[in-house]
Amino acid sequence: MDGRTNQISDEQQEKQPFDWPLAGIALGTVVLVAVTALTLAGKFTTLAITEIQQNWLQLGGFVVAVLAPIILSWRRAIRDGELPAKKTQPPKYQHISGWGAVFLLAIIALIVWLVLWAANTADGAPKIHSMWGLAVFGGLIAAFILVATAPLLARASRLTGLTSRLKSIGQVLEGPVHALGHWLSAVDSVLVFAVAKAAAADRQRVSLRYGVLLATLSCCAVLGYCWDAPLGLLPLGCAFVIAFAISRRWVWIENDRELWMLNPHLPDGYINVGFEQNLRDEALVSFLSIFALVPLALRQLQMSAGYYGIELFSFSDNGNADSMLDWIAFYGTELAKSVPFVDWAEVYHVEGDAPVHIASPMGQHVLFAVRVLIDLVFLAALLQAISNSARDSQQRELFQNKQLDRLDPFTEPEAFRALVQRDRDSNSWTPRQPQFTEFPPYDPNRLVELSTDKDERIRAAANALIGRDGINKNSPVHKLAERTDEDHNDEEIKALMNEVELSKTPNVFLLDTARKRLAKRYRLPEIRRRILDLIIALDPELIRPDIFRARTDALLSAAVGDAREPTWPTRKLALETLERQLQGNQRVRAAFEQAAKYDQAGGVKEYAQAVVDREQPIA
Fold first, then answer.
1. Do 576 and 531 form a contact (C-beta atoms < 8 A)?
2. Among 109, 150, 280, 536, whose Cα sits 20 to 30 Å from the Cα of 223?
3. What pLDDT score was predicted for residue 617?
4. pLDDT (0 to 100) of residue 215
């Protein structure tokens, strides 16, 4: 794309793009439900089509239902800079270190080796030799001592010159180790930004999120039961991947929230996913579905292994390989025996009495994998939820003690709704006493932002707190931030903008809030440009450091990211202003690199690429 073809008209960029991912989600859900209905109809009735035609329709429909939303969500993530455009490019979020991945794989390799050793012992009764016990005991003590003395060892290695030698060895291993971290980070990013979004995890409407998730998991479970082996493993595997993807996105959201709670004014560049959805309940529902999916998977694995002449499990006289109740009883019995981290059944020699029994070493491997799944995945999610609840409670306590002036993004809406109640006489929201009077002082800028929230109760609570705390909401910049929503007409916003330009102390945070709201609805590009001009006009040499940081954040949000300007000249203007900060700010450099790769306008891409090529990377 050359300089002439990059001149995408402002009118074209102002047009809100069609939501293709949502269309893919709708198509995938409808097709998956239709495939499930066709499968059930073929199982209980006689259809007018042949069995081969039915199988092809079912398989083809399932592939379309799974791939359509994932591909469209993937492409949207690439457009938004969340995923790289080419396979050879590193992931945007490299949160898994190479050495951490090596350590994880080493642990997995050790577990696999132990499992294979135990399953293939000649006499069938493997025993841990006493020397092994001594080695494990000594190894654990050495590991704890090593961790405790790590700072001293690092200092000693520097004094003895060992650090330089270790560094040279590390440089040799850096390539493959770093690549391993890249690969795992890329897989995790795809799960979060493609697979989870394909299951509607990023949608605002709770009914849509739950509807798509429950429909997808339910249909996959039905198909996993009805389809013949080994084809039935396909929908069950997809259900496991979707459940894991939802949980990973939830973990990312919680990590973002933890950072935000450490610094409520953290710039958007440090937030990976955001707080628009709280996926805790969806993640727990996904893990809960594993209780239904695992017995189905055990049944499918038994039938698939039998297809190849391998016996995983055997059955007692009253057992039936096709009975889900028997598989659920077997699974529940094994769960009871393997209460996580307790192993009471082994200590007291308690055996299960389910109608299903392990019949081969391969069956032992399958059962061990199921126990690992429960111990490491399900229990980890449960502990995460408990930990989050404890952290939220501590944060609310700090807020009540006036050590914080903002609540976290998930607690805040409920806290504000609890401050007001409906007055039956006036049919309006009025403060609820004594909660309202006892509510600690809140961040003024955040209150102004919440005063235009879509939720009527939150708006009423924010306005009541503004009045209680005597916040000057009548200044032009406060009014502009408040009224840049769809309920106010353009002429009123233009008049307010004129007043803001005449004021001498514009608020950068509120100006940026107004610009983001207008950009989100593709409104008033000339007003957004004037807002950006006011932000740019602030002299970095004369303003306070906190205002300078807010100015930088506002320019970055206008140039790249979800709240970027739809018109390319304004994005380029923001980048031109940021160019002088390129050498001193890694976030600014990252913004130029992102614009050079992903911006839709050729003029912006060429300018950003030229700046990146001209400047040396930060050491």
1. no
2. 280
3. 46
4. 96
CB 604 within 8 A of CB 562: no
Euclidean distance between CA atoms 498 and 125, whole angstroms: 85
Q: What is the DSSP letter of 486?
A: T
Measure CA 187 to chain center.
13
Q: Tell me the per-residue pLDDT of 375-399, one tens digit each, with 9 for 90 and over.
A: 766 667 777 777 777 777 888 888 8
* pLDDT above 90 coverage of the chain, percent: 24
Tokens 């610009």 belong to 515
- What is the 3-class SS of 195-228, one letter each residue? HHHHCCCCCCCHHHHHHHHHHHHHHHHHHHHHCC
Give CA–CA dist 128/450, Å, rounded.
Answer: 63
Residues in the chain, how many? 619
Q: Which helix (H) or strand (E) holds 429?
A: strand 428-431
- Burial (0-12, 13-18, 19+ Cβ within 10 Å), 167: exposed
Q: Which residues contact 267 (CB under 8 A, 6 or more apart)?
A: 549, 552, 553, 556, 587
pLDDT in tens, 339-359: 655 667 777 777 777 888 888
Please report, as a single letter, which amino acid is at residue 602: G
- Please state which of the ranges 54-58, 432-436, 510-514 shows the lowest mean pLDDT: 510-514
Closest CA to 444 of 410, 421, 475, 489: 475
Asked if 30 and 69 touch (Cβ cutoff 8 Å), the reply is no
Q: Residue 113: left if φ>0, alpha if ψ -120 to 50, beta else—which one? A: alpha
